Please model this.
Amino acid sequence: MIHVERDDGIAVVTIDRQDALNALDVATLTELRDRLHELAADDDVRVVIVTGAGERAFVAGADIKYMSGLDVDGATEWGALGHEVGRLLETMPKPTIAAINGFALGGGCELALACDIRYASSRAKLGQPEINLGIVPGWGGTQRLARVCGPGAAKELIFTGRTIDADEALRIGLVTKLADPVLDRARETARALASKSPVALRVAKRLVNRALGGDHEENLASEAELFGELFSGKDAKEGLTAFAEKREPRFVGR
Ligand code: CAA
Model:
């Protein structure tokens, strides 16, 4: 089951399947996809936080018992559904934060990797253990882990399938902060982001997402173009004027 709590522009999405350490089965992953689509389209939602219910797990992966019965077509479809969820988190026009409150393994680590920002509890355990099941990460992990931590660290983790603790995850850049309780820290950042210009955040996310793909010159040209376009909006005028007038800016989202 997926719970969505909205407060002051911040949506907290909680994955709740605690008897399986929040492992994602078809019903839960489909519901997560549907809720994320709604949040992506809702302009009143400025920041999305994803977390797991309970004390033990963020998400302990894709549901292994379900996967054991899949044939090629079923597995391909299952992979595509996970990819759809990852792309939603990665491309929705607002920041997404993973508050990793425990095990983030396999598909759980991949879900976190698709978020813009990753914070973890000091008790969290992360990894891509798929190799131990005779498979590979199938929801974007081979690509995003390599992009986030570099191909060397990604290969070591994916080939060995070992689980790492929060300190190591911080050291290799898989998460950017450790905090307890991690959801409080994620909310604090979300509140800060919700006070920024949503237009500037949208453009920033789009541009940084392009940094590791495509042509460098073209990406720089896009930055120059979108930087210029921001000056046609109210938020850029407000932010620049507020600084000159020594007051806090009031962004309207245009
Ligand atoms: N799928 C289905 N059920 C899971 C699960 C998963 N990924 N992870 C945990 N569970 C279930 C367990 O089967 C158990 O259920 P029962 O009580 O009915 O037996 C319950 O959650 C509690 O788990 P444990 O008893 O195993 O708890 P533990 O504290 O002894 O161990 C753990 C915790 C180390 C996380 C262990 O549960 C584990 O190794 N889980 C599997 C992790 C994993 O391999 N994840 C990757 C899945 S593959 C994937 O995600 C593919 C992809 O890229 C899309």
Summary: The mean pLDDT is 97. DSSP finds eleven helices and ten strands in the chain. The longest strand covers residues 2-7.
